[in-house]
Amino acid sequence: MIEVKNLNKKHNINERFIASIAKDTLKVLKKSSRIELGIAFLSDAAIRPINKRYRHRDRATDVLSFELGPCAQILISSDTALKNSGIFNTSFEEEIILYVIHGILHIIGYDDGTAEEKRRMSKKERMVLNKLCRTDFSKVLMPQ
Q: Is-contact 130 1, C-beta < 8 A?
């Protein structure tokens, strides 16, 4: 079961579409689709204290992932996704999808603490993104 909640109303996220992207990502990675996964979209202000408490970094971050046995939670800052889309010359929608993939990779055991781990994780993110590229990422946003 995959549950998606947009708690940052500054961005109109299509929760159903994000759930389908997460399900497709798990399929591409050959992981059980029976995983209980929660994905929440937060503001920078909301994710910052969580990052401080659990990662001891007093700043906003893009993605936090937590595994609690068979259940997992991914927290995504849609504010950071918007900022990073300008920095990395990508679309907001692509950043959101990358963060979903990134969070799932953390949950299944990938890390990005070292340069080698970052390279490995980035390669896997791109592989998944390429497999999903048939998807119309504009559906990330809810129609206004």
A: no
Q: Which residues of 22-31 are buried (b: 16+ CB within 10 A; e: fewer)?
A: bebbbebbee
Angle at 74 between CA 33 and CA 44, to 5 degrees: 155
SS3 16: helix
Closest CA to 47 of 91, 9, 78, 73: 78
Backbone angles phi, psi at 70, to 5 degrees: -80, -5
Alpha-carbon distance of 41 to 75, in angstroms, equals 6
pTM of the model: 0.89
Q: pLDDT per residue over 20-35, tens digit each?
A: 999 999 999 988 667 7
Percent of the chain past pLDDT 90, that is, above it, reads 69
The rounded percent of the chain whose pLDDT value lies above 70 is 90
Task: Give the CATH number, domain containing residue 72.
Answer: 3.40.390.30
- What length is written for the chain? 144
Range(s) of the domain holding residue 38 = 2-140
Number of domains in the chain: 1
Measured on CA atoms in the order 129, 57, 78, 14, is the torsion positive or negative? positive
